[in-house]
Automatic annotation (TrEMBL), chains A, B:
Lineage: Bacteria, Bacillati, Actinomycetota, Actinomycetes, Kitasatosporales
HTH tetR-type domain: residues covered: 15-75
Matching PROSITE patterns: HTH_TETR_2 (PS50977)
Matching InterPro entries: Homeodomain-like_sf, HTH-type_TetR-like_transc_reg, HTH_TetR, Tet_transcr_reg_TetR-rel_C_sf, TetR_C
Keywords, comma-separated and alphabetical: DNA-binding, Transcription, Transcription regulation
The name this protein goes by in its record: TetR/AcrR family transcriptional regulator
Highest taxon of the lineage: Bacteria
Record-annotated DNA-binding residue ranges: 38-57
Keyword field contains tRNA-binding: no
Length: 194, 194
């Protein structure tokens, strides 16, 4: 988190401006695609002066990174302590994040142009998804599940990578049932109901 | 393949211009990143008039798509008819393509901005990689290998998706040994040497 006015005075003018700018940016990205959004357009939609956007964020990429950071994992489903359930829940949530309008646009903004900011964006993106699934694995380990959790690297390769790939390339059939298949492929089929 | 002059008169002026423009574009993308390349800059580097680039390709994205198409899989390693060897060879080649300067830039160009062309670029990118691995599976099937080949979908999920993900996110240790691990993860460990 940064320590600008919005953090120091929650609910203050600065926080209201930030919220208005964030939601204007999200709306414009959904409507036009990330590559067609400019800071002046965001400023106009948010009803604020574009000079304050240039001062505070500097570029659209930095603004999108700020949105991604602030959104964070706040609305991710809570962990229940069962490896399969948590992997499925977090993976379904990750898929939904990637799939909704704006979600993949943010991912694309992170993958695409603009050298240094892209590198930071990618690092942040990978860090977030890694943290989310590291918590799943740590929690399962603490609960002493029958199945020992796989290494994080395997979760990235076997669950996250296919989801990203399939969303980026719009491969059909990438849904909750498919997520459950990926999880079963990694940790085995669930026991049959009695 | 298109049917423009370069195809009708191989080695003609049009083909020479195309080759010069392609190599200028590849060099500029490597130096600056795909987002910093313009048609006039490519024209200048190639020593041709930029109006002919606008006429022939229209946009940088279309030019990059043409390069990707023309490059195609011409220099991919030949199939030997053994499932493991062919999966490993094609996957190592795919990884090298993605990893070299320009390679990931082209992938990024395909993933990133510009709506309709992006969609076409992604479709083409997925088609190419799918074709390459479909041939591997068909050849293994014809050779009647002991191990029946997995479905193409599994090859995409278990080998290609992790490679793309790891190159995009610059995850270290993504090398030939790692490719062999992915292949063994999918079709089983190779038999021990006697």
């Amino acid at each position: 988190m940064n320590t600008d006015a919005s953090t120091k005075r929650p609910g203050g003018r600065s926080a209201r401006v930030r919220a208005a700018v964030h939601s204007a940016a999200v709306a414009l990205v959904s409507e036009r695609g990330a590559d067609q959004v400019t800071l002046p357009a965001v400023a106009e939609r948010a009803g604020v002066n574009s000079s304050s956007l240039y001062r505070r964020w500097g570029t659209v990429a930095a603004l999108l990174a700020d949105i991604a950071k602030q959104r964070g994992d706040a609305d991710a489903p809570p962990l229940v302590g069962d490896l399969r359930t948590d992997l499925e829940n977090q993976a379904v949530w990750t898929l939904a994040e990637l799939s909704r309008p704006g979600g993949i646009a943010f991912f694309r903004a992170e993958v695409a142009p603009d050298v240094d900011e892209r590198r930071d964006g990618l690092r942040e993106c990978l860090r977030r998804v890694s943290e989310r699934f590291r918590s799943v694995l740590d929690t399962a380990r603490e609960h002493g599940d029958a199945t020992p959790p796989p290494p994080l690297e395997q979760v990235l390769d076997r669950i996250i990578a296919p989801l990203y790939f399939r969303v980026v390339f719009s491969i059909p059939g990438t849904d909750e049932a498919y997520v459950r298949e990926l999880v079963s492929g990694l940790i085995g089929e669930p026991p049959l109901e009695p």
